[in-house]
Structure formats: structure tokens, C-alpha cells
Design goal:
By secondary structure, this protein is of the alpha+beta class. It has 38 helices and 50 strands. Strands 30-50-49-48-31-42-47-46-43-44-45 form an eleven-stranded mixed β-sheet, sandwiched between helices. Strands 32-41-40-39-38-37-36-35 form an eight-stranded antiparallel β-sheet. It has a six-stranded antiparallel β-sheet with strand order 21-20-22-29-24-27.
Length: about 1300
């Protein structure tokens, strides 16, 4: 049992073992082998005799060396073996130097991490380690366990409000020692790192071992050529993997500063625009001791490199660094590393020391997320500017949005909002494009502690999110005043402890990478090894009967027989099949960073889809208003009563930012539908003068717990200066119902009927507040506003499906796949979309929901149909047979996030039984999406997950086949038929809108002043402010700036960027398109690759079994092949494998499923039966050849050179026939990939080789037979030879097709069938 030194409630680590590293001489792969080498040397020299047993001594010595190398490799392959051989377990944390950390399932691999000790200013020592970027600290006094670093996230709210920041240097130093810097540094794999990973893989090591054996058997040229081919091929695969990673990164953010190392403050732009300073010393930068180090001289505007002061210079413009001829770029080594030092004062640090710059070939790491930037922090009693990477939990900071249209502020860590409201774009973390309103703690009940699960949604600014808008807090004497008019925040969590850091940690460490070295392959090799051991034993026993035979040669031959079960081409052929699919997917704009996941796509049983942005488009359609007359009839919203339009116009959380509406797409669609606009002063006015405008005075923002939002608005009375106030409320119909003065008839019936259609239904209500004084407005609270309301109708908003979603889902289902929806949306909406896309087939869909009417705790969860007609208990009391027929198979199921938690905690067995029958998961959190995928995995079900947002990251990473689509990309590739001058880029709907807006602005400018658009744009770009512009010119310039901004946004969207909020940073597969058609492409290639892989295993197994027989029995009979014969056989083998790996999938997916693994009845039976047929034919021909040409010598000389004979020629002819028939018979073809007739290259190679073999057998071309050293067969034997060859091919084909008919089709498990 492992040493449990970890907190039991830790969500990452399962156990921690404490160890002491042994000295190198005492390692398990060193010390024991010193004794073995010494003991064997003593026995070899003094007991057996060095010269008498020279060969045996070398064999034993090489065996010990191989064992030592194997022990070293096992230490590399397994952390547990490394601990066993290199460490000693201890029970005291004070003695330990390293820790073996074993994570929980689906959280990465075990690691051996060093234990670090530090001492604070008070002299207290602490013990800690870092695992997967997370720090764990030893609590030895009470708990005697390692616990995750604790951040200040559970203190009373009053303590946060009263805190003024760190007040002393001692507090700062202590916090810095505990928490470290606020940086997110992601390690970037290099070529040598990836190649080392492949070069130490078991298969590659085994191949190198085989090459060494062949060298001992005097196959020098062949061995070295094979080794070179292996190295080149592995390098090619590594290069391909790096190219795919770079391709995905190209789609990413624009070039920004790269920070390498721990302290990102080594180079920064100081207060003066022309000065550069490092750390606290403003005039010194020194790198190493060599004369090429970089230093800053006495003058603030000069940088000198060694003796040549002109290598790096500061240009004419302030804050710019120029290297060579090109400004704003730094050449590091041979390749430019795109370090941009532009207008923003930012940082470059390379290396571990804060004042060192690493200039070499190894880029260590990349800073992920926001660039370290200057931020105001209240420390030591005053406000000061520091880099955001120096922030510490407990700091009081001011966060503000920069000025200008292009300015943006990324929240550097998790912050608690103390004073001032803010609007944030959280799409980087959630994948949703709806900005969130954040409220400060002012006015809250401050006696309770902070609870992130409750308060996080409203009061916490999460790291990585974007500050869209903020309102400076009122300046009072009692509170801190921000010098930059920003909102005041308290730093809660930094670095990898923040929300952004936890997301990145999930991406980096959640699951291990998939390679070709899986368990199934090893078991298959062990299966073949049984036959090889039998053959090697036969050779050794028979060979030892001759006392004069060379034991060294005999041992070498037995070793070669054992290694023949793993042909050296096996990993190459498997990789070839995968690489071909990789290139085919790339042509379809699908990129893969883990190539060996492609065969998993062929095994997929369940295809899981996110809904919003994946199955449905992001464009919302406002259908109209319903329920005003008690019916479900929908009327256009423009025809609705004025009071209804007023509620829709003011009840929203939209903000006007630089003449652009920012907020919920649903609310933007509503405002657009009523043709009203929002001004910067929070006023809404009709575009076409339909009545007066309204002023939004107070907002009570939407809350998922309250399921509603409300607004207080005012409008001026006609003819007077007085204002009349109104309250507008919208929310879930069941929530608004209790707030109405009178509930209309058919209220429930109408909204439930509309919800079942799949539309989003919101109830609208209002009430008149009359004329109020400013004091009365301030005294209003949410409870007063949201009571005594008058119903104003239901607003109906629909989210249309993408144009190809239905066709793709139909094709996926028709190819024997179950389809499941996993979404965070409303259950009724999700069920309707599932019904439209035919995810469900039964007439009734049951939704698991809480029954508020139930009296007992156990009865609070029930199954209820969408139309409320069926109500069943959570676990029906039925027999297992009736449960399956009358419950599981009779209904389709939808489970909500709360219901999922209830099922797993209270009824885990029933949850596992139910899971295959669930078709919709609604209102699930990102972690619950991940849980659904891992639950499928626990049941042995292979899943494909397709999503587009960061809320899908965990599920995409854990799914055997995770597919990410880009939400802002076009849904189909550009047409290739158009000429270059006529070609047009396919844009997303959002990009099309911006393009139309840009065209409209340009036409507007050209109409006012022909040619003025270009001139105004030039003026806007030049940045020259002219204060004496006329009013007309100012309007022109403002319009030009808007046009420039639209064009810039359009250009960014056309680049199809992958940001931290996109799912592609975690998914093994990434599509450049927004269509789910990529799922079909991936499954096609997956099935083709899987079938190709399985048939390769069959062919290699048959070849290995035949080779084991020929290298044993036939070897002892003296049968050999000439160089020409071996060359032709090797070329045929390589060509056929190459042509098989290049097979293409069919255009449509078949209903038949391929067999998912090697170990199945069909594969094992057909291999054994075909081998039996081949063995019988080979045995018959060898016996007949010995009868027609009896042996003359009594003893077979195994060392003599090749001489043509009837036996040699017969065995060569039959072995070539076996090889040809093996490829032709075991090629699968339809319905998964092109048939043998369609694979022309393979067909031609088999026909040509088959014709050549028949010509040699029948003696049609004597000169050709003589060239290949084939003897002239006697007529009777020739007839027998041809008959046996035909019988071998026919019988092998017959047994394979019978096995294929009986056992060759994979089937979808019954619980997943529709």
C-alpha cells in the first residue's frame, strides 16, 4: 500500500511516497551488475577457461549487458521501478529528498519530484514540492500530510473590505516565498525531446536490439540500412507532429511578447519613454561572463553588446528597440524567435536568473495568457506600479480598461471585486460569448465568509477574462482611492492556482498521450512468441545433438527466431497507415497533434456533441411575442404593444463600447428586432422615431439562482421636464409567475408548449413607479421592483441549427453510432434540438428533475415527461428484465447536472446501468461534461466528443477522440474551382455582418465626399490630431475610425484564430471549419486506419509464423535463399505494405462496424486456419521434393554458401505464393475502404508478382528462372507444385471468407442502439 501522505480530499493527487535517493553506485542498475560482471569474469577466466569457452563467455557477457540496459530503460519507462531501483523509502518527511506522486485517475502520470526546503524570515523551515505546476506544502505538526497551497479564498467578507494591502517588507517577502510569481509558463516540446521519447519506446529499443543481432550474423549492410531507415522515419514522424502543433499555433493569437523563466521583470520600459531598466538597477543588464554579454551603459538610450556598440541600437522613436535592419525583432541564434518589443512596456526574460538572457537553440517555455503588464497595487501604504507577474494573493489592485478602441485589459489573476461594478468577457474560460456583469461587495452582508461557488459568478473577476467596461467607484474618505480610476480588487489566486491556470493545467496534464505501443499490441506479440519459443527450442535441441556444431552460431540463430515474431517493419507499417490518414485529414482542414488517436476514431461507439455553437449556430432569431391573448400564437415583435416593446428595450445588460454593442447575443438580437439602439449614456431610443426614448437608471442583473433580471428606467413626460419611472422585469416564466398581480389564463400551458418547440421563452412584465425623487430612486431595492407586476407577454427566441447538422447526424447514426448531446443549455430546449436532429427515437422523453411536491427526501427526484403526462420514480421497482424492456428501452432520457450529481452519489449502480440509454445531458457544468466522458470510458465505451468552447476542454481531453471546431470560422472550405482573381473567402455570419457594415460606412463616406474614405483612413492611421478640424471633417474622421476598426476585426476573424477560449488547445483533432462534417471525415479515416492496422497485424502474424517454421525446421535441413531471391521477396513485402497503408476510405460511412481490436474470434481463427493450410502445403511440397531429389550427404553443412536445388527452389516458390496470397486474401476493402480492384497500385504489384511466380513454377521463361537460381522442375513435380499452389490459395481464401461471414462484423452494443 502506498504511503498516504496527502490530504484525502485533494482533487489531484491520490498518494505521495517519501524516498531518499541512493548514491549512483548503489542504484539497482549499477551495483548488482558490478557483482555479476565480476562473478562471471572470475568463472570465465579461472573456472571454465577463457579460450576454451570464449564464445559462451561473450554470450553470457552480452546477456548481462542487455539486462543492465533493460533495467535502465525500465527506470525510464516506470516511476515505480525507478523508485525501487534508485531510492529508499522512508517514513519521516525530515529525511526524505524526493517524493513519488501518484495522481488520481485521468489526471496524468506518476512523477518522482524533488522535495524542496525553504526558511522564512522568522527562521521557520517549510517542506514542499511542485507537481503539475501546483505547489504542495508539508503540514507536519498536526496533519502530517502534504496539502495544496492554500489561497485566501474563505475569509469573512469584512476582512477583504477592511484590508489595505501589505504594509511591510517582511509581509511581502513572506508572501513571495509562499506564492511565487504570477506567471503561466507552458513548456514547449522540442524536436530532441520528442525524438528521445520515441527513441526510448519499447518498439524502437527492440528494433535496435534486432539490428545489433543482425550485425553479429554478418548482415552489416542490411542492418545499418535498417537502422538508418528507422531513425529517418522516426524523425519524419516527430517533424510531422511539430508541424501540426505549429499549424494550430499559427491559427492562434497575434505575435506577442515571449517570457521565458521565472521572473518576468528582467527587461522593462521604465517611466521615461527612452529608458530601459532591469530590476531595481536602472543601468545594468549583464548576461554571463563572456564579452558578448548585453549591458546598458551610462546613457539611458544606448545598449552595447560587447565591443560592438552598433549590433543593437535604440531607434529614433521612443520605446522601440531595433536589432539590425528590421525594427521590433530580435534574432536569437539562427532562427528569429519573434520577440516583439513594440509600443507597450513589456518584458523579455530568458533563463532562470532575472538578469540573464538565454541566446541559444533551446526555447524553454512560453508565457500563456496575458502579457505581464503594469498594474497599480497598494503596497506599503501607497499606490505604486508593478508588473502583473509580481502580484501576490492579498494585494489590493486597481484594474481599469485602457483608452482607445483597440485597448483591452486581460485580468491577470483571480480578483475579488471590492469597489466599483465591471463588465467582463469570460469567453476565454467558458467559451460563451456573453459578457458578465460583476458587482462589488459594497452593500453586501459582510459577516459571512466568501464562498466561491456562490459568490464567484457575481463578485470575482477570473484570471484570463477580458475587462470590457468598468465604472470608477465613488471617492469617499473611508476607502482607498484608485489613482487610475479603476475598480478596486483583492487578489485571491495567482499563477496556476487561478481559474486560467487550472484550465491550462487540465490541458497539459489531464491524460497521457496515446502511442502505438499499447497493451493490445504487446499481448499479440506474446501470443506469437509462444510459437517462436517452440521453434527456437526445436533448433537448440536438434543443434545440440551435434557436438561439433558452433554453439555461438546456434544461440544467435535461436535469438533471431525469437526476435522474428516482431518484424522490424511493424512500427513503421503502423505509423505509415496513421501518417497517410494524417495527411488526408490535413487536406480536409483537420489537424491532429496525437496521430495514434486516429484508429480510436474507427472504434467510436458514441458521438457526443455540444449544442450551442456546435450543432446550432450563434445567430439568434427573435420570432415574436406570444401569450398576450391567452394563446400560443406568435405575433411579430414589431406589432407588439408599446409597453411590451419598452420592456424589451430596457431590460438587458448590454453596454455601448466604442459605438459597438457588447453583451448577450440574445439581448442584442432582441434590441435589433425592435429596431432600437443603445447610447453610451445608457439610454435606448427608437431608430425611426417611434415615441420617445428611455433612460436606464438602475439594473438588477440576471442571476442563475434567481432566473430573472430587472431594470428601473425613466422617460420624460411630454411637455414637462419631469421624469416618470417604470420597472421592467424579464426571466423564466415559472419565476415571473409569482410576481404578477394577476396571472393570465393558459399562462403555464402557453409557455410549456412554446418551450417544447425548442424555443427560448422569457416572460416580460412591468409596472409604473410614477414620479420619484432621486432619493426615492436610491432607496428602491430589488424586492420592491420585482413585485406587483403586469404581464406583458412571452418573448420567443430560437437558435437555428447549422445547415449541415441534420445531414451529418443522420450519416453518423446510419453508420451504427449512438449520438448524445452534452450541453449547458435548458433541458427543454436541448430535448427539442435532440428531437429535431433525431437523437431520440422513442415517443416519450423523460427528464430527471426535482419534485417540489414530494414530502420525503428520497422521493424528491422523479422522471417526468416533457408534456408532464408521465411521472416515474427515480429508480423504478421492477425486475431486471422488466426494467430493461419497460423502462430503459421504452423511453429516452435527459439528465440535468443536478440530477447527475444525485444519481452518482446515491445510486451509482443504477447510474452505470442507465448511462448507455441517456441521449441528452443538459445544464451540466464543464467538470460534469468531463465526468460523462470518463463514465463512458469506465464502461468500456469508446467516445468521440465534439465541441467549440473552453467549457468542453476537459471532455475533449479525456475522450479517446476529441474534436474541436473553430466557432468563428466558415462552415465549408473555400471553393477551388474559381479563378484566383474571382475567388472569395467564405466568411462566418458574424464576419459577413461586419463586412456589410464596413461597405455601408465606405459608401456613406464616398457619397459625402468622393475619394474621402481613403483620405480619411490615412488621416486616422497617421494619428495626427488636428484641433482645428471642421465639424464635417471631424465626422468624416470618426466614421473612418469606425471603418478601420471594422476592417481590423474582419481581418482578425479571417485568420481563424485559436485563442485560450477555444477548445482546440486541448483537443487531439482540430478543424479549421465550424461545421461538424469533420466528425464524419475523422470517423472515415479512423475506420480505414483501424482496418488497415488490423489486416497488417494478420499479415505480419502469418508471416511471423511461417518465418518461425522456415528458420527452424527448414534451416536445419539446409534450405537457404539466394541474394536475388531474398531481394525480390523483400521488395514485394515492402511494396505491398506501402500500398496497403495508402488505401483511401469510401465516400460514405457504412452501417457495418469494423472489429475494434486484434483479439477477436475472427482474427485469431483466420490466422490459425490460414497458417494450418500454408503449413500443410509447405510440408507436403518439402516431403515430395525430398522424394524426387533424395539427399546424398548424411550431415547438413549449415555454413556452406547457397547452391540451387529442387528443395530450395520449391520452398522459395511456395513462400512467395504464401506471401502473395496472404496480402490478397487478408485485404479487407469494402465497406470501409477502397477494394482491391480500386487500389490499383496494390493490385498491379500482386498480379505482376503472382504472374512471375507462376512463370517460375511452370518454367515458362527459363532465362528468368536461371537468373533467380531456380532449378528446372521435373514435369510430374511441376504439375504437383502448381496444384498445391492453387489449393493453398483457394483453401486460404475459403477459410478466411467463412470466418469473415461468421465472426467478421462488429456490432454496436444493444443499449446504444436507437
Amino acid at each position: 500500500m502506498p504511503n498516504q501522505r496527502i490530504s484525502p480530499d485533494d482533487e489531484l493527487i491520490e498518494s505521495v511516497g517519501l524516498y531518499i535517493s541512493r548514491p549512483f553506485i548503489l542504484h539497482g542498475y549499477v551495483f548488482p551488475f558490478l557483482f555479476l560482471y565480476g562473478a562471471w569474469a572470475w568463472f570465465w577466466i579461472f573456472v571454465y577457461g577463457f579460450s576454451d569457452y570464449f564464445e559462451a563467455g561473450l554470450i553470457a557477457l552480452s546477456g548481462i549487458g542487455c539486462l543492465q540496459i533493460l533495467a535502465c530503460l525500465f527506470c525510464h519507462w516506470s516511476v515505480h521501478v525507478r523508485c525501487l531501483l534508485t531510492c529508499r523509502k522512508v517514513h519521516s518527511a525530515d529525511e526524505a529528498t524526493v517524493a513519488k506522486v501518484v495522481p488520481l485517475p485521468n489526471n496524468g502520470s506518476p512523477e518522482l519530484v524533488p522535495l524542496k526546503r525553504s526558511r522564512d524570515s522568522s527562521g521557520c523551515s517549510s517542506l514542499w514540492f511542485v507537481f503539475q505546476k501546483s505547489k504542495y506544502v508539508w503540514e507536519g505538526e498536526e496533519r502530517k500530510q502534504f496539502v495544496a497551497l492554500h489561497f485566501p479564498i474563505d475569509r469573512p467578507l469584512r476582512e477583504y473590505m477592511d484590508w489595505k494591502g501589505y504594509s511591510s517588507e517582511e509581509q511581502l517577502r513572506a508572501a513571495q516565498e509562499v506564492y511565487g510569481s504570477n506567471s503561466l509558463v507552458m513548456d514547449v516540446p522540442e524536436f530532441m525531446e520528442l525524438f528521445k521519447e520515441r527513441a526510448t519506446a519499447p518498439f524502437f529499443v527492440f528494433q535496435v536490439f534486432c539490428v545489433g543481432l543482425w550485425c553479429l550474423d554478418e548482415y552489416w549492410y542490411y542492418s545499418l540500412f535498417t537502422l538508418l531507415m528507422l531513425i529517418i522515419f522516426e524523425c519524419t514522424l516527430v517533424q510531422q507532429q511539430l508541424r501540426n502543433m505549429q499549424e494550430i499555433r499559427k491559427m492562434g493569437n497575434k505575435p506577442c511578447n515571449i517570457q521565458v523563466g521565472r521572473k518576468p521583470c528582467s527587461i522593462q520600459v521604465g517611466r521615461k519613454p527612452w529608458s530601459i531598466q532591469v530590476g531595481r538597477k536602472p543601468w545594468s543588464i549583464q548576461v554571463g561572463r563572456k564579452p558578448w554579454s548585453i549591458q546598458v551603459g551610462r546613457k539611458p538610450c544606448s545598449i552595447q553588446v560587447g565591443r560592438k556598440p552598433c549590433s543593437i541600437q535604440v531607434g529614433r522613436k521612443p520605446r522601440s528597440i531595433q536589432v539590425g535592419r528590421k525594427p521590433r525583432s530580435i534574432q536569437v541564434g539562427r532562427k528569429p524567435c519573434n520577440i516583439q518589443v513594440g509600443r507597450k512596456p513589456c518584458s523579455i526574460q530568458v533563463g532562470r536568473k532575472p538578469c540573464s538572457i538565454q541566446v541559444g537553440r533551446k526555447p524553454c517555455s512560453i508565457q500563456v495568457g496575458c502579457k505581464p503588464c503594469s498594474i497599480k497595487v497598494h503596497r506599503l501604504g501607497k499606490w505604486r506600479s508593478i508588473l502583473s507577474s509580481e502580484l501576490l494573493p492579498g494585494d489590493i489592485v486597481s484594474v481599469s480598461r485602457g483608452s482607445g478602441a483597440a485597448a483591452e485589459t486581460i485580468v491577470p489573476c483571480d480578483l475579488l471585486l471590492l469597489r466599483g461594478p465591471a463588465v467582463l468577457d469570460e469567453s476565454m474560460l467558458t467559451g460563451e460569448s456573453v459578457p458578465q456583469m460583476k458587482e462589488s461587495l459594497e452593500g453586501m452582508e459582510l459577516g459571512r465568509p466568501l464562498d466561491l461557488t456562490v459568490d464567484g459568478k457575481l463578485h470575482v473577476l477570473f484570471g484570463g477574462t477580458k475587462l470590457v467596461q468598468h465604472t470608477p467607484p465613488q471617492k469617499t474618505q473611508a476607502h482607498l482611492k484608485a489613482p487610475d480610476n479603476g475598480v478596486i480588487c483583492y487578489v485571491l489566486r495567482t499563477s496556476f492556482g487561478s481559474s486560467q491556470g487550472r484550465l491550462l493545467r487540465t490541458i497539459l496534464y489531464s491524460v497521457s498521450r496515446v502511442t502505438a505501443n499499447n497493451l493490445e499490441t504487446f499481448i499479440f506479440i506474446l501470443f506469437l512468441l509462444v510459437f517462436a519459443i517452440a521453434a527456437a527450442a526445436y533448433v537448440w535441441i536438434k543443434g545440440c545433438e551435434d557436438p561439433e556444431r558452433n554453439r555461438y552460431k546456434l544461440f544467435l540463430e535461436c535469438t533471431l527466431i525469437l526476435t522474428s515474431v516482431v518484424p522490424p517493419e511493424l512500427p513503421i507499417e503502423l505509423s505509415l497507415a496513421v501518417n497517410t490518414s494524417l495527411l488526408s485529414l490535413a487536406r480536409l482542414l483537420v489537424y491532429c497533434t496525437e496521430p495514434f488517436r486516429i484508429p480510436f476514431a474507427g472504434k467510436v461507439e458514441v458521438c457526443c456533441f455540444d449544442k450551442t455553437g456546435t450543432l446550432t449556430s450563434d445567430d439568434l432569431v427573435v420570432e415574436g411575442i406570444a401569450g398576450l391573448d391567452g394563446s400560443s400564437a406568435v405575433v411579430p415583435i414589431v406589432e407588439a404593444p408599446l409597453h411590451t416593446i419598452h420592456v424589451a428595450a430596457v431590460c438587458h445588460s448590454l453596454v455601448n463600447l466604442d459605438d459597438t454593442l457588447v453583451g448577450d447575443p440574445m439581448e442584442k438580437a432582441t434590441l435589433s428586432a425592435i429596431d432600437w439602439t443603445l447610447t453610451k449614456a445608457s439610454s435606448v431610443v427608437p431608430r425611426k422615431g417611434k415615441g420617445g426614448g428611455l433612460k436606464i437608471v438602475q439594473r438588477y442583473h440576471f442571476s442563475s439562482q434567481l432566473k430573472r433580471m430587472s431594470v428601473v428606467a425613466s422617460c420624460s413626460q411630454s411637455g414637462t421636464a419631469d421624469f416618470v419611472y417604470m420597472a421592467a422585469v424579464k426571466g423564466a416564466p415559472e419565476t415571473i409567475r409569482s410576481m404578477l398581480v394577476s396571472v393570465p389564463r393558459n399562462y403555464d400551458k402557453v409557455y410549456l408548449e412554446l418551450s417544447r418547440r425548442g424555443a427560448r421563452v422569457l416572460a416580460l412584465a412591468r409596472k409604473e413607479l410614477g414620479a420619484l425623487s432621486p432619493g426615492q430612486v436610491r432607496d428602491l431595492n430589488r424586492q420592491k421592483v420585482e413585485s406587483g407586476l403586469n404581464f406583458q407577454g412571452f418573448i420567443i427566441i430560437s437558435c437555428p441549427l447549422k445547415r449541415d447538422s441534420l445531414d451529418v447526424i443522420r450519416e453518423v447514426q446510419a453508420s451504427s453510432h449512438a449520438t448524445v448531446m452534452i450541453t449547458g443549455d435548458n433541458p427543454l430546449t436541448a430535448c427539442h434540438v435532440a428531437r429535431e436532429l433525431q437523437f431520440t427515437r422513442n415517443s416519450t422523453m423523460l427528464v430527471l428533475e426535482r419534485d417540489e411536491e414530494a414530502s420525503e427526501e428520497g422521493d424528491r427526484w422523479v422522471w417526468r415527461s416533457i408534456d408532464q403526462a408521465v411521472k416515474l420514480p427515480l429508480v423504478p421497482q421492477m425486475s431486471p428484465k422488466d426494467m430493461k424492456i419497460k423502462f430503459f428501452c421504452a423511453y429516452d432520457f435527459c439528465i440535468t447536472g443536478e440530477g447527475l450529481t444525485q444519481l452518482r452519489s446515491q445510486y451509482p449502480i443504477f447510474w452505470q446501468q442507465l448511462l448507455p440509454y441517456v441521449r441528452v445531458f443538459a445544464r451540466v457544468a464543464p467538470k460534469q461534461k468531463e465526468l460523462v466522458i470518463t463514465s463512458y470510458k469506465d464502461l468500456g465505451i469508446t467516445t468521440l466528443m465534439c465541441g467549440d468552447g473552453t467549457n468542453d476542454v476537459g471532455a475533449l481531453k479525456h475522450a479517446p477522440c476529441g474534436v474541436a471546431i473553430l466557432s468563428n470560422a466558415p462552415d465549408r472550405p473555400p471553393s477551388k474551382k474559381k479563378k484566383p482573381e474571382e475567388s472569395s473567402t467564405v466568411l462566418s455570419p458574424a464576419a459577413n455582418e461586419k463586412l456589410e457594415a464596413a461597405k455601408k460606412l465606405a459608401r456613406k463616406m464616398d457619397k459625402r465626399n468622393p475619394g474621402g474614405a481613403a483620405a480619411a483612413l490615412n488621416t486616422a492611421n497617421s494619428g495626427q490630431a488636428n484641433q482645428r478640424l471642421s465639424h464635417y471633417q471631424a465626422q468624416q474622421q470618426k466614421t473612418a475610425q469606425q471603418l478601420q476598426k471594422l476592417l481590423q476585426e474582419l481581418d482578425e476573424e479571417q485568420q481563424q484564430m485559436v485563442k485560450l477560449g477555444d477548445a482546440s488547445i486541448a483537443a487531439p483533432f482540430t478543424s479549421k471549419l465550424s461545421s461538424i462534417q469533420c466528425v464524419v471525415h475523422i470517423i472515415k479515416q479512423g475506420r480505414c486506419t483501424l482496418v488497415t492496422t488490423l489486416q497488417m497485424f494478420k499479415i505480419l502474424a502469418l508471416n511471423a509464423l511461417i518465418l518461425a517454421y522456415s528458420q527452424s525446421v527448414l534451416y536445419l535441413d539446409g534450405i537457404k535463399f539466394s541474394d536475388y531471391q531474398a531481394t525480390l521477396q523483400g521488395l514485394l513485402l515492402a511494396a505491398c505494405f506501402l500500398f496497403i497503408s495508402r488505401s483511401k476510405p469510401l465516400r460514405t460511412l457504412s452501417r457495418e462496424r469494423p472489429l475494434p481490436n486484434i483479439f477477436n474470434v475472427y482474427t485469431i481463427l483466420t490466422v490459425l486456419l490460414q497458417f494450418s493450410v500454408h503449413f500443410a502445403c509447405l510440408y507436403v511440397l518439402v516431403q515430395q521434393a525430398n522424394i524426387f531429389e533424395p539427399r546424398t550427404e548424411k550431415k547438413v553443412d549449415l555454413e556452406k554458401s547457397f547452391e540451387p536445388s529442387l528443395l530450395n527452389s520449391t520452398v522459395y516458390i511456395i513462400s512467395m505464393t504464401l506471401q502473395i496470397s496472404t496480402f490478397a486474401i487478408n485485404y479487407r476493402g469494402h465497406p470501409y475502404m477502397e477494394s482491391l480492384r480500386e487500389n490499383r497500385a496494390l493490385l498491379v504489384s500482386l498480379l505482376c508478382t503472382g504472374g512471375l511466380v507462376m512463370a517460375l513454377a511452370m518454367g515458362i521463361i527459363p532465362q528468368f528462372a536461371e537468373q533467380f537460381e531456380i532449378v528446372d522442375f521435373p514435369p510430374e513435380f511441376r504439375k504437383l507444385l502448381v496444384q498445391v499452389l492453387i489449393a493453398d490459395v483457394s483453401m486460404s481464401f475459403l477459410v478466411d471468407r467463412i470466418c469473415l461471414f461468421l465472426f467478421g462484423e462488429g456490432k454496436l452494443r444493444p443499449s446504444l442502439r436507437h
